[in-house]
């Protein structure tokens, strides 16, 4: 009997394969090279290489491959781009940040790349086994990245806390998958959706409902939604700033990538009322408590950690808008979510880059008071921080405004006007703490006891800051190209 | 099919194990015991998978168990390494003593 070899479409997964091969190359170069900066630049250029195959992949129709375990559709490819851009920008920050802290090591870049490959796998997976593996590839690398600064007890503590709660969350996710598997007999998300539509009498199966609830809890941990957010402020505060920038954007985007695909495809026709209510409630408490806790912060890095919880809340508004009345609205909700994640990548990584830049200076830490008179000491850095803060608040004409606009619009279209209203009130609340940074930088000029030495601006971080600031402003003024890109993000 | 023992017994047992594990994570303060509780939760999930796999006569659940075992082993390796690293700064396993981050 001849052995049949399955036809595997490797090209469909080429961006993931490039990232993994790049990680191996960096690992090999780490043994040969004593100058670890080279590895950082290799990572940055290699990630450009991973962006290349995304262009032809965007233009081709969906390509399920590896026995329907993964699919390469527009949705996955747009997420690849988000993850690669995130990894690229945070590697640029790391090049400067790690150098200044004396912890320039090859492992850092290897872990960033492996974590990115896990995120990409989560976006592409159509089988819960692959989703789980992608989730763990991403998370385990992130636990190490959080604890990467071995000289700092805060960093180690962040790593341990992230690890314990991350593993706890994975167990919930797995238990959810086990119940869904038990109810439907499959782990493939298309087959799960198909099973529900052919076996209508089981559409109120309590085992599947419990499974879905546990699955949502698992993802809520990963995207830092209240009440599963306790780890977030500590981990984001203790981790090296360059790693915080990466995980705040990347891990959140990956969690939403998998959650949206599972909810839209497997549970697009069943339990929609239940999960829409659950996600809406999560969104309300996440936005509100994230913003209120951020108001009280006196440390910019910790403030950004709480604000990242609030942003998870805005994104959940977009997820709640998924069961819209017609196909067009559903597509709008998905592309709105992706637009928000892309814009969040630019403005949040930019803000963390500024924090990383100021952190290294002897006396200047991450405290809000350290930003006093920044506008006179370093006008350029103060100006880009102003852009990022305005954009994170959602003030037009910055990119953050359009992200919120599309998400709240999608919510209104899905008859969730009340949720959009709560989101807008929360954006107004967030203005207080974002703008207090601006006030601190521009309007407190009389203090004399702050360090007045000029701040050096090394090339890699300067590029990261300039690029993010440029995109924040450019796509804010002219969002059409980015919106056109996001409208390609359709499920296969 | 699972011979004489009905499916519900397996599900009940794994639910009890999962709850004990989850309770342990929330109540216990020793990092190593928390790690053991997480492992217990994972193994409760494995039991659920195997029970369903046998009941549904489908192999997917058993494949999933292998994946879970691999990931659990990796998690233990990374988790213990992080704990050892942290012990160089502070000799403790009680998570309440790791309190440099607050706010």
Characterise the protein shown here.
The complex is a heterodimer of chains A (492) and B (103). With 492 residues, chain A is mostly helical. In chain A, 74% of the residues lie in helices and 1% in strands. Chain A has a two-stranded antiparallel ribbon. Chain A is globular, with a radius of gyration of 22 Å. Chain B has one domain (2-97): Orthogonal Bundle (Helix Hairpins), CATH 1.10.287. Chain B has three helices and no strands. The mean pLDDT of chain B is 90. The longest helix of chain B has 30 residues, at 60-89.
Features:
heterodimer; A: 492 residues; mainly alpha; 20 helices; 2 strands; 74% helix; B: 103 residues; Helix Hairpins; elongated
Helix content of chain B: over 70%
Instruction: Tell me about the largest β-sheet of chain B.
Output: none
In total, the number of strands of chain A is 2
Number of helices of chain A: 20
Assembly of the depicted chains: heterodimer
Give the CA-CA distance, first to last residue of chain A: 35 Å
Order of helices and strands of chain B: HHH
Q: Helix/strand-derived class of chain B?
A: mainly alpha
Unreliable spans of chain B are none
Helix content of chain A: over 70%
CATH classification class of chain B: Mainly Alpha
The 3D shape of chain A can be described as: globular
Class by alpha and beta content of chain A: mainly alpha
């Amino acid at each position: 009997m001849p052995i049949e070899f399955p036809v595997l479409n490797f090209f469909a997964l080429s961006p993931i394969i490039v990232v993994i091969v790049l990680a191996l190359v960096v690992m090999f170069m780490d043994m040969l090279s004593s100058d670890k900066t080279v590895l950082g630049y290799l990572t940055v250029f290699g990630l450009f290489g991973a962006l290349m195959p995304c262009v032809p992949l965007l233009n081709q129709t969906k390509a399920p491959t590896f026995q329907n375990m993964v699919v390469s559709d527009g949705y996955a490819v747009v997420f690849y781009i988000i993850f690669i851009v995130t990894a690229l920008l945070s590697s640029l920050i790391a090049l400067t940040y790690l150098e200044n802290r004396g912890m320039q090591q090859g492992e850092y870049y290897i872990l960033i790349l492996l974590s990115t490959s896990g995120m990409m796998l989560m976006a592409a997976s159509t089988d819960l086994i692959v989703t789980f593996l992608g989730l763990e590839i991403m998370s385990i690398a992130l636990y190490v990245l959080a604890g990467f600064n071995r000289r700092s007890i805060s960093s180690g503590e962040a790593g341990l806390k992230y690890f314990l709660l991350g593993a706890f969350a994975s167990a919930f996710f797995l238990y959810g998958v086990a119940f869904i598997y038990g109810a439907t007999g499959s782990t493939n998300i298309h087959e799960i959706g198909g099973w529900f539509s052919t076996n209508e009498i089981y559409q109120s199966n309590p085992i599947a409902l419990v499974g879905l609830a546990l699955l949502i809890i698992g993802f809520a941990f990963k995207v830092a939604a209240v009440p599963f957010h306790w780890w977030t402020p500590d981990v984001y505060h203790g981790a090296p700033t360059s790693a915080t920038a990466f995980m705040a954007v990347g891990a959140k985007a990956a969690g939403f990538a998998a959650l949206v695909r599972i909810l839209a495809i497997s549970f697009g026709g069943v339990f929609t009322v239940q999960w829409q209510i659950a996600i809406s409630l999560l969104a309300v408490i996440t936005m509100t408590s994230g913003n209120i806790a951020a108001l009280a912060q006196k440390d910019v890095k910790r403030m950004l950690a709480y604000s990242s919880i609030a942003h998870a809340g805005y994104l959940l508004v977009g997820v709640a808008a998924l069961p819209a009345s017609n196909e067009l609205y559903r597509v709008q909700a998905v592309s709105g979510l992706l637009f928000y994640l892309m814009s969040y990548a630019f403005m949040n990584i930019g803000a963390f880059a500024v924090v990383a830049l100021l952190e290294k200076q002897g006396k200047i830490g991450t405290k809000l008071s350290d930003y006093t008179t920044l506008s006179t000491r370093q006008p350029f850095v103060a100006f880009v921080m102003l852009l990022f803060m305005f954009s994170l608040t959602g003030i037009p004409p910055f990119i953050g405004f359009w992200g919120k606009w599309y998400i709240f619009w999608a919510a209104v279209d899905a008859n969730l006007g009340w949720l959009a209203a709560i989101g807008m009130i929360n954006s107004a609340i967030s203005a207080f703490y974002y703008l207090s940074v601006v006030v601190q930088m521009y309007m407190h000029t009389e203090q004399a006891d702050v360090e007045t030495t000029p701040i050096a601006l090394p090339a890699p971080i300067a590029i990261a800051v300039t690029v993010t600031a440029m995109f924040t402003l450019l796509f804010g003024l002219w969002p059409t190209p980015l919106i056109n890109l996001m409208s390609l993000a359709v499920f296969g | 099919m699972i011979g004489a023992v009905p499916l519900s017994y397996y599900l009940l047992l794994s639910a009890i194990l999962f709850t004990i594990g989850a309770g342990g994570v929330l109540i216990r303060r020793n990092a190593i015991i928390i790690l053991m509780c997480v492992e217990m939760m994972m193994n409760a999930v494995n039991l659920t998978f195997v029970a369903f796999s046998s009941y549904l006569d489908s192999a997917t659940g058993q494949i999933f168990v292998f994946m879970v075992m691999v990931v659990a082993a990796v998690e233990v390796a990374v988790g213990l390494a992080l704990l050892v690293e942290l012990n160089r700064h502070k000799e403790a396993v009680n998570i309440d003593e790791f309190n440099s981050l607050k706010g």
